[in-house]
Amino acid sequence: SASASGQTGVSDGFDPSADANPDSRRKNDHIRLALAQQQVPKRNAFDDLRFVHHSLRAVDQSQVSLATRVCGSDWPLPFYINAMTGGSAEAGRINAQLAQAAAATGLAMATGSQHAALRRPELEPTFTTVRKQNPSGFVFANVGPTVSPGQAVRAVEMLAASALQVHINPVQEAVMTEGDRDFGSWPARIQAIVAASPVPVVVKEVGFGLSRPTIERLASLGVRTVDVSGRGGTDFAVIENERRADRAYWYMDSWGLSTVLSLLTAGWPEPVAGVELLASGGVRSPLDVVKALALGARAVGVSGHFLATLNERGTNGLIDEIREWSVQVRALMSLLGARTVADLTASDLLLTGPTAEEARLLGVP
Ligand code: FNR
Questions:
Q1: In a designed cystine with 314, which of 5, 55, 189, 300 is the match (CB 3.0 to 4.6 A)?
Q2: How high is the ipTM of this complex?
Q3: Alpha helices in 243-303 (DSSP H)
């Protein structure tokens, strides 16, 4: 099994000399550049949202349940390790360690895009380690809308996955030199993947947010769960721009809807019918988790922060962090008088700053 924070790549069975191909190099770039973004603490739209404090509304911490239900499954905790990696030796080691932390804490987890393994079967072990290290946990497979329905099914089978994430990342593709340019077929392809998938499908952004019309469109394609994955954390416009020699898209770092704004527009004037909401993008703390839950998310995904925690503190450090977040989410729910995740949606919230202005322009009172 993988070492706590080993940089050797020897004991874990992933051979770094296999990383010369362009897929593996891109995966290693993403890890390095995403970690660099975590070095700088970032203000984001969660800071424009505050709870109104009611001193006598708190309930006993022992009465608070952190359980939630996502894609028809019961989860013990309302947050999860969101899609990141796979497809290189380093990515395989990270996936093994993330999966060990998920198994130790009961957290759900996603792999990164499996396209590299669909193209190069020798890279499969860097993904399947997620299931090997966590045989009975909730695991998301991950593909984009360019794969065929058959490949999507193959990705699910590769991991014996509990559900399938389909990432929609047009901004990332546009900024990438080697990215896709043909986006027009995506809706029909998503519909075909949903129809073929043996497990529930979650359509997610990768840090640019989902607008209400996008969520309504996804609902019409048969999608029942979405992850808004908004602006405020890992920024793939910046990452892909830094991977270009010319940095041509230097101005794209403000693109996208924040996670808070996406959740607000998804919920007003009423929630989009038949769609279960997940949230991610810029979640830095247990307070951000609770804010996203209060805005209607069933569970909250974390990528960049958990990657940085693993990098700095190793697998045991990540396990400690997940346990600490569980303790603190319970403390915050008790302060807010919420015995359940659903109770949080009755919280009194104050919205200020640029997010309040944007929400008003989109018709959210
Ligand atoms: C990602 N993300 C991502 N998403 C996806 O659906 N497929 C993928 O392959 C990847 N790859 C990836 C690599 C790395 C290193 C990071 C940090 C992230 C996007 C991720 O799931 C999430 O949507 C965004 O990162 C926003 O969340 P954070 O990082 O702000 O918590």
A1: 5
A2: 0.99
A3: 259-267, 286-294
**Contact 228 CB / ligand 1 (< 6 Å):** no
Beta-strand pair 49-51/349-351: antiparallel
Kindly give the confidence (pLDDT) of every residue in the chain, 365 residues in length, as a single tens digit, with 9 standing for 90 and above.
334 444 444 457 898 888 999 999 999 999 999 999 999 989 999 999 999 999 999 999 999 999 999 999 999 999 999 999 999 999 999 999 999 999 999 999 999 999 999 999 999 999 999 999 999 999 999 999 999 999 999 999 999 999 999 999 999 999 999 999 999 999 999 999 999 999 999 999 999 999 999 999 999 999 999 999 999 999 999 999 999 999 999 999 889 999 999 999 999 999 999 999 999 999 999 999 999 999 999 999 999 999 999 999 999 999 999 999 999 999 999 999 999 999 999 999 999 999 999 999 999 98
Q: Strands 73-75, 68-70: parallel, antiparallel or unpaired by DSSP?
A: antiparallel
Torsion over CA: 265, 347, 108, 102 (sign): positive
How remote is the CA of residue 335 from the centroid of ligand 1, in Å? 31
* Ligand 1 geometric centre to CA of 232 (Å): 12
